């Protein structure tokens, strides 16, 4: 059975896409720690633990996430983009990219932002535009 993230990557569940290529997909987290909080996933591998990925997929995922992080930082004002790999809530490898101004911005125990759909769409569009420039 496909994971929710696989369904998102296939377009079966709507998302706010910020980047995509043949093997990987990046979209806004619907429960963000900060505006621009992005999830990066492999499209064709549903393993729930990043270190189970074969080297080719792992390295490709990291390279794709780096490019997305560059676009994210250009689109969303922040000091840097933080990276977290938890994988506890969805059984599909995913990397969190979170715009940071302080270390506390990457605390997953914090209350998540509540944003209107229009704001998600604006953020996704601005990141995608920056990604397409790279």
Automatic annotation (TrEMBL):
<feature type="short sequence motif" description="Histidine triad motif">
    <location>
        <begin position="92"/>
        <end position="96"/>
    </location>
</feature>
<protein>
    <submittedName>
        <fullName>HIT family protein</fullName>
    </submittedName>
</protein>
<dbReference type="GO" id="GO:0009117">
    <property type="term" value="P:nucleotide metabolic process"/>
</dbReference>
<dbReference type="InterPro" id="IPR036265">
    <property type="entry name" value="HIT-like_sf"/>
</dbReference>
<feature type="active site" description="Tele-AMP-histidine intermediate">
    <location>
        <position position="94"/>
    </location>
</feature>
<dbReference type="InterPro" id="IPR011146">
    <property type="entry name" value="HIT-like"/>
</dbReference>
<dbReference type="GO" id="GO:0003824">
    <property type="term" value="F:catalytic activity"/>
</dbReference>
<dbReference type="Pfam" id="PF01230">
    <property type="entry name" value="HIT"/>
</dbReference>
<dbReference type="InterPro" id="IPR001310">
    <property type="entry name" value="Histidine_triad_HIT"/>
</dbReference>
<feature type="domain" description="HIT">
    <location>
        <begin position="4"/>
        <end position="108"/>
    </location>
</feature>
């Amino acid at each position: 059975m496909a994971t929710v993230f696989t369904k998102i990557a296939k377009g079966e569940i709507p998302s706010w896409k910020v980047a995509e290529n043949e093997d990987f997909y990046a979209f806004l987290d619907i429960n963000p720690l900060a505006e621009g909080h992005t999830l990066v996933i492999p499209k064709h591998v549903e393993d729930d633990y990043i270190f189970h990925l074969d080297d080719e997929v792992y390295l490709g995922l990291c390279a794709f996430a780096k490019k997305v992080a560059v676009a994210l930082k250009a689109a969303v004002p922040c000091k840097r983009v933080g990276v977290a790999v938890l994988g506890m809530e969805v059984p599909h490898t995913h990397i969190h990219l979170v715009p940071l101004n302080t270390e506390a911005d990457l605390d997953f125990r914090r209350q998540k932002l509540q944003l209107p759909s229009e704001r998600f769409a604006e953020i996704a569009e601005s990141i995608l535009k920056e990604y397409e420039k790279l």
